[in-house]
Structures
1.
Amino acid sequence: MPDDTNSPDVDRPGHGYSSSRRGFLAGTLALGGAAAGLGTPPLAAGAEPAKGGAAVVNPRLFTFVGGKAGGWSVVSAKAIIGDPLPAAERVDIVHGAVDVLPDGGKWKLRGVTSNGRYTTEDEKQRMAKKQADLGRPKATHAALIPIRKNAKWWALAQDERRAIFEDRSRHIAIGLKYLPAIARRLHHCRDLGESEPFDFLTLFDYAKADAAAFDDLVAELRATEEWKFVDREVDIRLVRVS
Ligand code: HEM
């Protein structure tokens, strides 16, 4: 999951879709003059500007709003482990903060892109060679998978987490097989506050033809030792609203 060190679109903001205002936006938008020359970071792929003309203050912050509005229609939302999320018809991916749940909003989840914790330089290079940006025109399908890991995981030392994550669970090695068909971005939530319901918000997009491959990918990862430390996971499948 692209964190800063891996993610093409964060390193080179402005990538992504060009479609209607409700769809994915790319590049810098005039945010009520705030952006013009004031160094407002351009919108990353797959994000709407924060509402009300507010400049994007933290370029690494994204908010996912489940409700009646947004560029993505919810096809299914399954609780894989733990509690489900309230049912929503659409997901709005906002680049920035969402202070107030909009009309018809059921939930909002926030996370920041961040640096790698476990990825070696060699793995980073191998991913950089293969991975694609979010927002390809053909990527009409997506998945938002919020995940929380248990206290036992967080009590482990860094090297032991790395050993479980890669040496034994082969997370990156498995993931590499599915690039570039699957594009990805990882958002970290845990350090935003004690009340965050998840530790990670994982986002993927892909072409309809690769939907079965995505199912294979998640099945492979969920069968690993790493997933024994997951105590909440919701699998939300999305189709882009044309
Ligand atoms: C598309 C193929 C995939 C690749 C190449 C991939 C690669 C990665 C990488 C490089 C990291 C960051 C490790 C670090 O912090 O250095 C990561 C983290 C993570 N990925 Fe994936 N991933 C893929 C698919 C998935 C899928 C399908 C899921 C969920 C079903 C997932 C869930 C996660 C989670 C939760 C983390 C954070 C783990 C932690 O910090 O404890 N990944 N992945």
2.
Amino acid sequence: MKIGFVSLGCPKNLVDSEVMMGQLVSRGHTLTTRPDEADVLVVNTCSFIDPAKQESVDTILEMAQYKKAGRAKKLVVAGCLVERYRADIRRDIPEVDAVIGTNELERVVEICEGLGDGEGAPAPYLYHHLTPRVLATPDHFAYIKIAEGCDHPCSFCVIPQFRGSFRSRRFESVVAEAAGLFERGVREINLIGQDTTCYGEDLGIRHGLAALLARLAQIETPHRKWIRFLYAYPNRIDQRLLDTIAAHPDLVKYIDVPLQHASAGVLKRMKRGASGEIFLRLLERIRRTIPGVAVRTSLIAGFPGETERDFEELCQFVEAARFDHLGVFSYSDEETSGSYHLDRKVPARTIYNRKRRLLAIQRKVSRARNRQWVGREVEVLVEGPSKETDLLWEARMPTQAPEIDGVILVNDCEGRPPASGEIRRLRISEAHDYDLVGTLLPASEARPPVRPGSLVQILPAAASV
Ligand code: SF4
């Protein structure tokens, strides 16, 4: 059968899609990028906030059109929307033939082949290094999910309700997967989970993430490699972790730590604790321990009870913290979240204006930070031709994570032409609000080997959240 796959949402969901595609391909099915050619269409959904839910429903209905007009005989919906609204999907979207929950990834083949429907898996699922997986990212970078679920009580968040309690993958399984990916020519590995900094706690491993990072950095590879982790929890960032990152050149100098807010009162209502002062001290310790480190965070605008004063405090915090990268989410009133029952909801217009104001402050910070790079030479990972124009190529510094941060637009090249996946030096010539511009310098390493066949395109999604 020909299977068309749409993957929505975050990299954690993308890995689930890659595991499902791996199952299908390992059982002889083929993947197509053309929904009109597919026999079966699979939409792997996201549902953590309203916009994500809306995008999921829109995409399902869009794919349902292909069932009416195209060759597709079956429409399968997978992922987080299924976990939250399994019965609603079945009742309200009759075009959907079957559903697959987040713990039923290994049932995708039988479900696509028409042997059953997702009833909800008894046991929490977590893939391992022998699980067939098709990479949906470009050949030179990949995500590794090191844990699933979450035990934190953040009052606005519903993820633990459908991703379950926190569970780590086996240490040696992650190491084997990373070694296999590097062996296949991957240059950059991004470790992900709902909270990567809790890694190993449930396995009795002290300083689990630091130990894992140090072990991954020791993997022998013929070429330079980059190792990054995303989704840290603020009070889990300890000195051992920072020292480990500082000690290993292959561990990129990058910390992604969603802080959500800076007002102690709002953080308390979020059931996260801490305060802007505590976070500024944490940032100071991170920057002191890891020179040149980039810090990314995400914040929520308009949480119930957020007063003008709380918001001003948040604005001053963003100005003082000077993050390298920052994302802002509008508060989403999820009916099964703890915060749903809180009073003093913030009007939608106010939430909109507050989000815009935070992003405007960060745009200035980002522009000023970017200007400091002009004239400097940096190490970059060459991504490939720019998505905007084929007159330019794109590259990233270690301080720029894939798919979420700014990039470097390559408008000139010294020495041989660029190649996707090579790590090379670059001189920065221009700075914009989020992106930089520069000239690739002559290559210092041999052109990286390209292993065909590992790259499989999935159907384009409207816009991943
Ligand atoms: S740490 Fe992240 S995934 Fe876990 S409850 Fe909080 S916001 Fe949700």
3.
Amino acid sequence: MTSDKLNAALAAEVFARKGMRHIVISPGSRNAPLIIAFAQHPVIQALIVIDERSAAFFALGIAQQTRKTVAIACTSGSAVLNYAPAIAEAYYQKIPLLVLTADRPSHLIDQGDGQTIRQKNVFANYIVKSYELPEEINSEEEKEAAVDLINEAINLTLTPAGGPVHINLPFSEPIYNQIPALNFPVKFSEPEIAKHEISENEINRLVQTWNSSAKKLVLVGMMEPDEKFRNLLGQLADDDAVVVLSETTSNLNECCIISCIDRVVSTIEPDEANDFKPDLLLTFGGHVVSKMVKAFLKNNKPSFHWNIDPVDFNMDTYQSLTDPVPMNPGGFLEKLLLKTEKKNNSYRDLWKERAERSEQKHQEFLAHCEYSDLKVFEYLLKTVPENSNLQLGNSTPVRYSQLFRAVRKYHYNSNRGTSGIDGTVSTAAGAAFVNGIPTTLITGDIGFLYDSNALMNHHLTGNLRIIIINNGGGGIFRFIPGPDTTSHLEKFFEGRHSWSAKYIAKNFDVPYYTASSLEELHIVLPQFYENQKDERPAILEIFTPNEKNAVILRNYFAFLKI
Ligand SMILES: Cc1ncc(C[n+]2csc(CCOP(=O)(O)OP(=O)(O)O)c2C)c(N)n1
Ligand SMILES: [Mg+2]
């Protein structure tokens, strides 16, 4: 059986026949036709998450791991608006979400009906495309048009750019009636995989710039693991004149790459900036976490900057873009490497020596470092189980992780699309739900408390581990320049508090562990990673000294410079 509302029944049918499998539904009455159509579909796995904000991030976490379109469905009214944070994140990360919002019929909008707002195109500023399906679908033509619309919407979640696509579905009462499952043929087309190519002339022009540039810097932002690209990048880096910088979220783990950018860039003195400055900058991948490298490249502009991306080729993060290159990273390097000439100079050595020196200093500092966020990250990043999916919370967790060379292999993820602290726990829970591997989230205390509703979820899995670094507020505001020059640091920036996750964990029956020293951490971490009773996830809250943390981190960067 399915809903007698054909717009809902067809949405489920096309979604299923295109091979999509997951929908995250939030309770409501107006979305009853969507609940009936999707929850009763034999091949669709329908999941329930009550809080729409968390539901959308949970779906984002699933799609982040599967790279297949995940649907979300909610009732009308403010419920719809709660999807916005995750939709914005999915938009900037190009994660495939199909957003299905139930609505009142148009003649009831702004007429005083309950749960009724203007939903058409409500996510305009951060949506790939918005559609509205007609309420009544009667004729064959109307059915075909509806199937085409749904088909096109799902294809646009995947290509050419990919990301969230919204379909608003108005329903009139009665909304709970059912009909036999649809058994008529539904025709649809697969997404067209766009060809991202540039002409041979264009390649030759770029190769000339490459071969005539003495100092070449390659910066890789957020990226999913890509074996082909990793190998080609290794070949490109085998050149005295080429320096490659990456971050944990680049998922590269390559020996010839400098992976702790802040440790190196923070030591570059103004009088040596020109030596480190590239003539030619190549950028690949998505968002870059390091504020320091962004400032360095904006203040020391290269003569040429190529941004290689199939979609965001025009993104000018360093305000120096000369050549947008609309190609896939691997495809571009393949073409470039056929014609590049290597150079003998000391540019790579200059960066490598600085990187080696900072590694030495790093080890020296950590060897005598007091208990703090920095010391805790040192321990966690060498004890979280190998080959885990490591989800990094925004604010300091994703930044501390950049200060340590990878000693274990992880698949890193972080919501760097909009860098919000409002959905990291729900995202990690969604990722763990589908990836079937040990999945650890390292989040700040405010980030956890903000999204603690993520635990209000019947689909939490036993492979999920949540590590909370509780430094009693937004510790980042104690470190970045500015807040401490005002009299509002503690109250309005740090949001100082003495809350903990203990009773939240208890309320949602999630095993809870704590540590307030390295000794305690050494003892509790193995227990934390053991399988929990009833295959529950687990929380480990690590308390750290908030005022000391910032002092230690400032001393750390000062020490690297000595
Ligand atoms: C939705 C949202 N609101 C506000 C911010 C601004 N913000 C950035 S970091 C931060 C504090 C986060 O504190 P916590 O999670 O404890 O991390 P810590 O700074 O202690 O590492 C805030 C409020 C944001 N990034 N996202
Ligand atoms: Mg904090």
